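Hey team,

Filing this mostly as a record. A colleague (T.K.) asked me to run one chain through the structure pipeline before their review meeting, and I want the input and output archived in the tracker in case anyone asks later how it was produced. No errors, nothing strange. Just documentation.

Input sequence:
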Amino acid sequence: MIKKYISSFFMLILAVVMTGCFKVVKLEDEAALAAAQTFDVSKNVAGFWETQAVPELLKKAVPLVQLIDESKGDFTSLASKYGKYSMGTSGELSFTVSAEGEVSEVNIEKKAGYIILKLSDYDGPYTIKVQVGPVYKGSAVRDSLNSIRYDDYTNQVDWAAVSQNIHKEIQKAVIDELDIPSLQGKKITLTGCFTVGSTSEIVITPVKMSQL
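Output structure:
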């Protein structure tokens, strides 16, 4: 009984310090409150990115040209074989792919920068864009991972922050290691993720990329 009163008093003092006012906290809510005060999404992402996320994505990547050929214009037909839906069996469909080709265009005038990749052994209708930041659209990388899930996080805000911090890791570990303007006309190889959307272009967020 004494321990319970001491614990309650501690949480009461914590509430005063954090908010400037008194707030009564139930004993059963103490653990959840403590976790909410200490959880740091950026540290969480940094902790699993290199050790879990990147190895998983490199292992599951399918050659993009192969994926396009097999899909015959319908990527949803390959969802169970190669893809992953953001909500289990529904939501946005994403794929993890590997690709190689020549950079035919570099566009970094806007914050959502990208390069255009002319794939080796492919001359089809899709335009292949590779995001190079510093602003990244979508959440293809986060949604492609099996090692994390929405239920692992407290709320939608933290879940969205996971994607944002993944993009920060990509910017630091992948993009900043390359001289993007100099890639014009050069051959590169990459592994990355894209979400099915446009029928005319595929927009890949790289998790690994290097000049050949």
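Quick notes for T.K.: Helices lie at 2-19, 30-38, 41-60, 64-71, 79-82, 140-144, 156-175. Strands lie at 62-63, 84-85, 93-107, 112-119, 127-134, 187-195, 201-211.
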